[in-house]
Task: structure prediction
Amino acid sequence: MSEDQKVYMPSHPLEPGDRYGVLSGFDPGTRTLPAGFQIAPAFRPIPVDIVLEKDMAVTLRDGVTIHVDVLRPAGADKVPVIVAWSPYGKGQGTSASVMGVFGLVGLDNEIVSGLEKFEGPDPAYWCAQGYAICNPDVRGVADSGGDSLLWDRQEGRDCHDLIEWLAVQEWCTGKVAMSGTSYLAVSQWFTAAEQPPHLAAINPWEGVSDVYRDLVMRGGMPDTGFARQLRDYSFWGNNRKEDIIAEAERYPLMNELWENKIPRFDRITVPAYVVASYSNTLHTAGTFRAWRRMASPDKWLRIHNSQEWPDYYAEANREDLRRFFDHYLKGEDNGWEQTPRVRYSVLDLHGGDRVDIATQEFPPTDVTSAKYYLDGRSRALVTAAPAQEATALYDVGSNPDAVSFVTRFDQETVLVGYPKAHLYVEARGADDMDLFILLQKLDAHGTPLQQFTVPNQGAPAQDLTERGASILRYKGSDGRLRVSMRHLDETLSTDAVPAHSFDRIEKLSPGEIVGIDIDLLPIGLAFHPGQQLRLVISGRHLLGPMMPGLVEYTPANSGQHIIHTGGEHASYLQLPVQTR
Result:
């Protein structure tokens, strides 16, 4: 049925321009790039001789042919291979758009060779370490056949077939892995769930894991700015591409189409090294969800304190990943299995972040859930439920269009884990509410604390992130919910992380007070004596668009929003407090 529910639109080939790279043209054949070769002046030379087999044809199980580039160290030795699966052209590493992304975050293009896919492993490094890299043009992209899809179980089946084709090539040891950030991470969930026999390990480095909940209907709201950009500026090809925006408009509730865009986590059993952050408003929820639900007995999680691209290409992190791959793809007895199953960070937002804190699970075992109750009279967060009922409210579109509650910590306090808000709300003059939640850290004087996640912190970056581009500047843990979509999925929800079914609409009646649960992004945050935590509730998106240039979502709000506190309507914020 989900195939019948798909909506397609025409695609067209990628033409020379800002997304066209040196290797973007269709040019089958084998050539050797000698050590010292430099594909373009801005990029690093390669350290070893690399064989480039370009635009090789691979036939998938349904007869569709895709084309792949393989870059491998020259010589007779067989090597394992790492796959970078995404719809981004396999030659875009040298394009102006990718170079611009590096400039945006403050990275120098000379840290990579330009032979890598955008957000993928760099052949210059990995070939020197005895690995091959496979950069495919996936179904429907460039000169590959078929219609392209966006994050779908079909992609898992396609990549399964590519992995099995790679494993039997004469230069391959039969061991295949996957690595990459964002789209290249998401494709790994789907592929691993298909259980290709020769897939030895995966390395998803921040990515969504539920297209409905993370991309097109976050919190039940049709906030499709990034989905539109993904659709319109990727998937260049000769046939059709999936129209994810039309699908979201046609199917606003969870159905088989969206279920097909959720990986079968219980089938992911391959060794996995997962990398996450607290600060990526696109990827954080999905990465942690996949980590929690995947069935791999051998899985590791590292939570960093920056942004995915600087983190992915940092030398120390590549070396860490190489130890993981060396263990599972080369059989090296290098002690990787002694690596702590979880290494997390605690942000300070005023200098002094702590990183690579070792534990065996997330949240750590020394974390307990603490309820901080909202008091509508004092606008404080208090540790005992107020006996007296009170309200806090705002008029939609007014100034202020938010209400907040604050608590001050009198001793060192560390929050690590999953916050959530349980609120009793009422809409006056409307039958629905789009609600946005933000947890802010304040200094002792009440000033909000924030932190750039990227090296670029100049005036243009300040401007971009003043109200938007939240992936570049961390301002706190956020969450959202359209109140008519409040029904919980009892099979997926836990006390710490509520999950909504999104399969029904329950409008509000005049005067009706309803209880809602809102999950917030996981957090690792330190508070020093005197510093404060502020809970903000609003009818507008408090962080703005997650990336530069995206159209901002306009909430479907009107009337007055009322937050009930105390007595029979004891709204609270649940925080993961570290007890040691």
In short: The mean pLDDT is 97.
